[in-house]
C-alpha cells in the first residue's frame, strides 16, 4: 500500500478517535480537531524530523507547540498513533487521574507535550523561545506551531509576531488554522480580523496561503515549501484555510461543534462516515 | 545583643546585577531577557560580556514570559527582568500556564517592588506580588534584604530546578549581611536572639527590624529577629521554634497584609501554635508618590511602626 494511502487511512482513524473520545466524556472540542486532522497527520508522519522516544529538550529533532490547546483530541490521537504513548490511553481522555487532560499539559508527564496550552495566545511566544534555544544549541532543526484564527485576537500574539520578525527567528513555521469560526460565531462577525496575510507580511514574515487545509497533499506540499523558506532571515507563516468539523457532514461549516460532543446517534453517523482503518482504541 | 553594621549602603537591584555578572562568567546555561529596562535592572555587564545570551524583547512582558518558557528547551536557565509590577500582575496568566503549570525552569526577577519605588507612584508600586506568586503551585518566592543577600540569591536560584520569583528593589539601603554568605533557599536566618517577641521580617524591612530591636532593648524588651528571605517554601520550623520561646510575633514586609509573609506566618501559627501576631504591612491600600522614606513613614513600614507593633502584641500574650 502506498504511503499516501497509509496516511489517508490514518486520517480516517484519527477522525474516529476524535469523535469517540469526545463522545465518551460528553465534552471536548471536535470541530477544530476534525478541521486540523490533515495538518497533524502530515506534520507528525511526513514533515517533521523526529527522534525515537521523547525527551523534553528535543535537541536534534523538530519541535511542535500547540497554542490552541482545546483541539487536544486530534493532538492526542496523532501522538498516540505516532507511538508517543499507548493508543488505549485515548480512552482516558478528560477522565480523573488521566494524563490526557482536557487541555494539553506537561504536568502529568504525557510524552509528546512540551507546554501547557488552553489559555489562548501564549504558544507563539513559547515557540519563539524554543526556536531561539535551538539557535543557541546550534541545532539546525525547526520549530512548528499551530494557532487558531480567533486566537489571534489575543494581543500577546502580536507582541510575538513583531518579535519573531524583528529578531529574525527564521527557524520557526507558525501555522494559523483559518477556519473562520470561533465560539460565538464567525470570526468576521465576532471580531473582524481582516486580511491576515497582509498583516503578517506587514510585520515582516514570509507568508504562505494554503487554500485547502483539508487536502492532505496540499498540506504536505505547503509544509515542505515552508521548510524551504526557513533560514532566510524571516519567520514563516502558513495561513491554512480549513473547514471546522471536516469529515463529519453535520459538523462541517459551523461553529456549533466547537466545544460540543455528539450524542449516541450522532456518533454512529460520524463513525459511518469515517470507517475503521487501523483499529479503534 | 548582636549588632549589625552597614558595610556601605547599596540598592538591592545592583546586587542582582552583580549576581548576573557572576553567572554570565560562570554558568553558560544562564540567559537573560529584558523588557526595555536594562539600566534599571543593572544587567549591563552581563549583556556586554555575553551578548549572545541576552534577549531584548521590548515593552512586551507577556511575550517575554512565553519566550522564557520556550528557551528552557535545551537546558537553558532564563532570567526574565523587569519591574515587579510588570513581572507579576501584568503577566499572571502567562506565568501560570506557560511557566508554573508547565514546570519550566524560569527565574522571574523583579525590581522596583513595593512603595520604595518612590516618586513614580502607585501604578508602579506593586504590593500584591508576593501573594500572587506564592499562590502558584510549585513557585519558589524569594525577597532578599540587602545587596549582598540579593547577589547570593541571584546565584543560588540558578542551582534550583523550577520556577522562582525573585523580588528586590530600587532604593539604596544598608548592606549588612556577609559578602560570602551561603544562601539556602527556604532557610530562615536568625539575626538576633531574644525572649519577649519574635520579629519576622523580609526584604527592606529586615534592617528596620534590627533598628527596632536595638531601640526596644533600651526599653527593656528583648526581641528576636528572623530574616525570612524565602517566603515560599516557608521555614516553619524556625518560626515555630522561635514563637514557642517568645510567645508572640510581629511580621514586617513591604507588601499588603493580605497575601504576604504575615499571612503565611499566621497560617502556620494558627494550625500549629496559636499566638498573638501583629502585622507591619500596608493595609489593603495602594501607594502614592513620595520619597521612599516619606512613604515608609506614612504607610507604617519602618522601625517605629515595628516598635509600636511589638508593644501592642506583647500586651496580648496570655
Please characterize this protein's 3D structure.
- The complex is a heterodimer of chains A (281) and B (318).
- With 281 residues, chain A is an alpha/beta fold.
- Chain A is 39% helix and 11% strand.
- Chain A has one domain (3-272): Thiamin diphosphate (ThDP)-binding fold, Pyr/PP domains (Rossmann fold, 3-Layer(aba) Sandwich).
- Chain A is built from ten helices and seven strands.
- A five-stranded parallel β-sheet of chain A has the order 1-2-3-7-6, sandwiched between helices. A two-stranded antiparallel ribbon of chain A has the order 4-5.
- In chain A, a hairpin with a 2-residue loop joins strand 4 (181-182) and strand 5.
- In chain A, helix 1 packs across helix 4 and helix 1 runs antiparallel to helix 10.
- The longest helix of chain A is centred in the first third of the chain and has 23 residues, at 3-25.
- Chain B has two domains: 10-173, Rossmann fold (3-Layer(aba) Sandwich), CATH 3.40.50; 189-315, Rossmann fold.
- In chain B, 39% of the residues lie in helices and 19% in strands.
- A seven-stranded mixed β-sheet of chain B has the order 3-2-4-5-7-6-12, with helices on both faces.
- In chain B, helix 4 packs parallel to helix 6 (92-101).
- The radius of gyration of chain B is 19 Å and the shape is globular.
- The model of chain B has no long low-confidence stretch (mean pLDDT 97).
- Classes of the chains: A alpha/beta (281), B alpha/beta (318).
- The interface between A and B is medium-sized, with 39 and 31 residues.
Briefly, what is this?
By secondary structure, chain A is of the alpha/beta class. Helix content of chain A is 39%, strand content 11%. Chain A contains 10 helices and 7 strands.
Amino acid at each position: 500500500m502506498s504511503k499516501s494511502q497509509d496516511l489517508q487511512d490514518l486520517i480516517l482513524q484519527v477522525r474516529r478517535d476524535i469523535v469517540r473520545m469526545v463522545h465518551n466524556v460528553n465534552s471536548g472540542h471536535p470541530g477544530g480537531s476534525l478541521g486540523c486532522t490533515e495538518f497533524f497527520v502530515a506534520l507528525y508522519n511526513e514533515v517533521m524530523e523526529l527522534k525515537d522516544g521523547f525527551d523534553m529538550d528535543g535537541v536534534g529533532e523538530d519541535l511542535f507547540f500547540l497554542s490552541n490547546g482545546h483541539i487536544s483530541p486530534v493532538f492526542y490521537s496523532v501522538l498516540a498513533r505516532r507511538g508517543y504513548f499507548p493508543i488505549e490511553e485515548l480512552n482516558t481522555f478528560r477522565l480523573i487521574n488521566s494524563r490526557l487532560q482536557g487541555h494539553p499539559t506537561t504536568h502529568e508527564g504525557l510524552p509528546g507535550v512540551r507546554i501547557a496550552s488552553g489559555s489562548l495566545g501564549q504558544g507563539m511566544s513559547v515557540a519563539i523561545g524554543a526556536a531561539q534555544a535551538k539557535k543557541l544549541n546550534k541545532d539546525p532543526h525547526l520549530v512548528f506551531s499551530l494557532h487558531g484564527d480567533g486566537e489571534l485576537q489575543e494581543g500577546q500574539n502580536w507582541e510575538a509576531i513583531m518579535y519573531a520578525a524583528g529578531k529574525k527567528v527564521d527557524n520557526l513555521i507558525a501555522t494559523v488554522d483559518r477556519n473562520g469560526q470561533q465560539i460565538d460565531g464567525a470570526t468576521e462577525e465576532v471580531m473582524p480580523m481582516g486580511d491576515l496575510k497582509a498583516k503578517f507580511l506587514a510585520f515582516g514574515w514570509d507568508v504562505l496561503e494554503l487554500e485547502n487545509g483539508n487536502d492532505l497533499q496540499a498540506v504536505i506540499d505547503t509544509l515542505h515549501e515552508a521548510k524551504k523558506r526557513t533560514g532566510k532571515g524571516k519567520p514563516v507563516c502558513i495561513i491554512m484555510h480549513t473547514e471546522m468539523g471536516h469529515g463529519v457532514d453535520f459538523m462541517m461549516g459551523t461553529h456549533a461543534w466547537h466545544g460540543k460532543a455528539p450524542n449516541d446517534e450522532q456518533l454512529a453517523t460520524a463513525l459511518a462516515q469515517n470507517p475503521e482503518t487501523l483499529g479503534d482504541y | 545583643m548582636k549588632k549589625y553594621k552597614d558595610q556601605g549602603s547599596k540598592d538591592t537591584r545592583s546586587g542582582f546585577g552583580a549576581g548576573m555578572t557572576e553567572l554570565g562568567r560562570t554558568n553558560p546555561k544562564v540567559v537573560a531577557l529584558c523588557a526595555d529596562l536594562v539600566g534599571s535592572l543593572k544587567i549591563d555587564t552581563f549583556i556586554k560580556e555575553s551578548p549572545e545570551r541576552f534577549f531584548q524583547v521590548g515593552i512586551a512582558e507577556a511575550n517575554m514570559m512565553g519566550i522564557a518558557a520556550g528557551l528552557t528547551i535545551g537546558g537553558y536557565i532564563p532570567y526574565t527582568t523587569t519591574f515587579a509590577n510588570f513581572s507579576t500582575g501584568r503577566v499572571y496568566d502567562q506565568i501560570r500556564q506557560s511557566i508554573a503549570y508547565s514546570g519550566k525552569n524560569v527565574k522571574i526577577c523583579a525590581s522596583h517592588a513595593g512603595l520604595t519605588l518612590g516618586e513614580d507612584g502607585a501604578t508602579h508600586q506593586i504590593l500584591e506580588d508576593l501573594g500572587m506568586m506564592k499562590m502558584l503551585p510549585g513557585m519558589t518566592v524569594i525577597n532578599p534584604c540587602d545587596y549582598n543577600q540579593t547577589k547570593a540569591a541571584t546565584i543560588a536560584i540558578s542551582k534550583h530546578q523550577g520556577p522562582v520569583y525573585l523580588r528586590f528593589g530600587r532604593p539604596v539601603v544598608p548592606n549588612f549581611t556577609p559578602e560570602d554568605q551561603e544562601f539556602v533557599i527556604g532557610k530562615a536566618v536568625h539575626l538576633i536572639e531574644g525572649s519577649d517577641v519574635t520579629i519576622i521580617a523580609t526584604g527592606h524591612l529586615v534592617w528596620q527590624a534590627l533598628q527596632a530591636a536595638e531601640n526596644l532593648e533600651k526599653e527593656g524588651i528583648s526581641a528576636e529577629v528572623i530574616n525570612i528571605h524565602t517566603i515560599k517554601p516557608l521555614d516553619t520550623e524556625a518560626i515555630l521554634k522561635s514563637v514557642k520561646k517568645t510567645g508572640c510575633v510581629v511580621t514586617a514586609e513591604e507588601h499588603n497584609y493580605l497575601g504576604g509573609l504575615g499571612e503565611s506566618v499566621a497560617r502556620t501559627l494558627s494550625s500549629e501554635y496559636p499566638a498573638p501576631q501583629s502585622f507591619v504591612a500596608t493595609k489593603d491600600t495602594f501607594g502614592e508618590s513620595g520619597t521612599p522614606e516619606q512613604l515608609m513613614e506614612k504607610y507604617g513600614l519602618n522601625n517605629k511602626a515595628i516598635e509600636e507593633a511589638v508593644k501592642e502584641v506583647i500586651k496580648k500574650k496570655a
